[in-house]
Specification:
The protein has about 220 residues and is an alpha+beta fold. It has 2 domains: about 130 residues; about 70 residues, Alpha-Beta Plaits, CATH 3.30.70.1450. It contains 3 helices and 4 strands, in the order ααββββα. β2 and β3 form a beta hairpin. α1 runs antiparallel to α2. The chain is elongated and about 90 Å long. It starts with a helix and ends in a 13-residue tail after the last helix.
Length: about 220
Amino acid sequence: MRFELLGRVHQELSLTGHALYETILSISELVNRKVQVIRLHWKASILLQQIDDVAARVGQQIVARVSDRLLYQNYPDSVVGAIDQMLADTTSRVQELKHSLIGVDAQIRELKIETVHQDLLSLQRDLALRSGGMERLTIVRGAAAAGQPLSALPLYSSSSAYVAAVFRGPFLLAPTNDLLFRPGDIVVLIGAQAELDQLVSWFTGQRPLTPSLTRSA
């Protein structure tokens, strides 16, 4: 009996140590991503400042050359050609800076997506440990949910499932009780996995995995 107890304690300590290691590693990766994002934002700020400086400098040069032409009658006509060349060079330089800025912006978005992905994995793990889950469902035409308000959502009397978000085209809609579901809406549900399995049929028309729900009063 004593050896079994020691074995269980050893197993618990091993699991705890492994979880602690994963937590530290996850925090380190998160901090590293945030540091990279800050550096990229700083780089983007420098590029924007360089674009402003180039535009300001060429503006000052054009004003100076035009003023000289107006002040001095014998000023050479080649000033027009010089201004055109100056504008062409400036445009080329600004395009280069904008191209670099687009690259930095893409890196920032990629890092943010990685951070969100990691957060979603952590959320799904936390839900799974508690027999919970998260579903992303698209309402199909002819489904029971189409044309119904959120308040008509079939639930257990003590349900833990709820609508976390509703996406309609480019819009994020607030999940209020009077919100009418439409075909094509994307609904994000969070709650007990058994209840989510039941709600799938209401949104998609597919057969539920377990006995049907009863609507709460």
